[in-house]
Design a protein that fits this description.
The chain is of the alpha/beta class. It has helices spanning 28-41, 62-73, 110-120, 143-155, 167-178, 202-211, 227-236, 260-273, 281-287; strands at 4-5, 7-10, 45-48, 50-51, 58-59, 80-83, 90-91, 124-128, 132-134, 137-139, 159-164, 187-192, 217-222, 240-243, 250-252, 255-256, 277-278. The chain contains nine helices and 17 strands.
Length: 291
């Protein structure tokens, strides 16, 4: 499997909106359809957030996760489903009174953040091993919350994708592994170019890769204009890659991507041009030790 590259497609996320690119899927039906199109284009894993169909804003509503999951599972696709646990971590402190949290704070307890994982039991779910400044808010994932979430994810039989945004996050992830809260070999996602984490540069990716456990599988992505350069860098360094409209809505300079599938197709070309092959969902189940 060493010459096969896993492509993950992050289908919608929470930041890009249809006002910026009409190709961004919003409703559960659109998100599921876009996921299946990405699979046809070459993605073995789809990473899924959900949105309120009426407003287009990010949501944590279970019924939306359930509908997306059911639609994908009922399709011809064998794509692996990766549900997010990231929502519920945004903290915006008050300026004069820090404990008077500002509008936009979404902090939820750790059990609330994984209840859809326990009920739907996707193949994979993200686990953001990071507390960091993120634009003007704090992305809050404390060690005690992560321990609770990791324990419940493991009990549900779901593979966590350990999302890390800097080297310190890798060290915390190693502690979760050492404490038997995450099974080894683990699966890491290196998240590059996000304010204020590791930069989307070859040097940063190499440094983070070198801090990972030797037996792990890893993937990486860059946001915006660095999506495809970082995809190529991940292949060159022996890793896997992620593309998709959560991270980037452009196919090229000034050219909006019409769909997630277009972004995946570009990634497939990069992988082939660099002498690797595309991992199928069946391959990924072997690579990640999934049943």
């Amino acid at each position: 499997m060493s010459n096969k590259t896993i492509i993950t497609c992050a289908v919608t996320g929470s930041a890009p909106t249809p006002e910026k690119n009409p190709g961004v899927p919003v409703t559960p039906k659109e998100i599921a359809a876009s996921s299946i199109e990405a699979w046809r284009a070459g993605a073995a894993i789809v990473h899924i957030h959900v949105r309120d169909p009426e407003t287009g804003l990010p949501s944590m509503a279970f019924e939306y996760y359930e509908e997306v999951t059911d639609r994908i599972r009922a399709s011809e696709s064998d794509v692996l489903i990766n549900l997010t646990t990231g929502p519920g971590a945004r903290l915006i402190l008050g300026i004069e009174r820090p404990m008077d949290f500002q509008s936009g704070t979404t902090v939820k307890d750790p059990i609330e953040r994984v209840k859809h994982i326990e009920k739907l039991r996707p193949d994979i779910c993200s686990l953001d091993v990071a507390t960091m400044n993120f634009n003007q808010h704090v992305f809050l994932n404390t060690p005690d919350h992560l321990q609770i979430m990791a324990k419940r994810i493991k009990a549900a039989g779901v593979k966590p994708e350990l999302e890390v945004f800097d080297t310190g996050h890798i060290e915390l992830a190693k502690k979760l592994i050492a404490d038997n809260l995450v099974d080894s070999p683990a699966y890491f996602q290196l998240c590059l170019g996000i304010s204020y984490g590791a930069t989307a540069t070859p040097e940063a990716m190499m440094h983070m890769r070198d801090r990972l456990p030797k037996d792990c599988t890893w993937s990486a992505f860059g946001i915006s204009r660095q999506q495809f350069p970082m995809a190529a860098q991940a292949v060159l360094l022996g890793g896997n890659l992620r593309v998709g409209m959560e991270d980037n809505i452009y196919l090229g300079a000034g050219e909006l991507a019409r769909s997630n599938a277009e972004l995946v197709e570009r990634a497939v070309n990069i992988v082939h041009n660099l002498g690797s092959e595309i991992a199928s969902p069946k391959d990924v189940r072997t690579i990640l030790n999934l049943s």
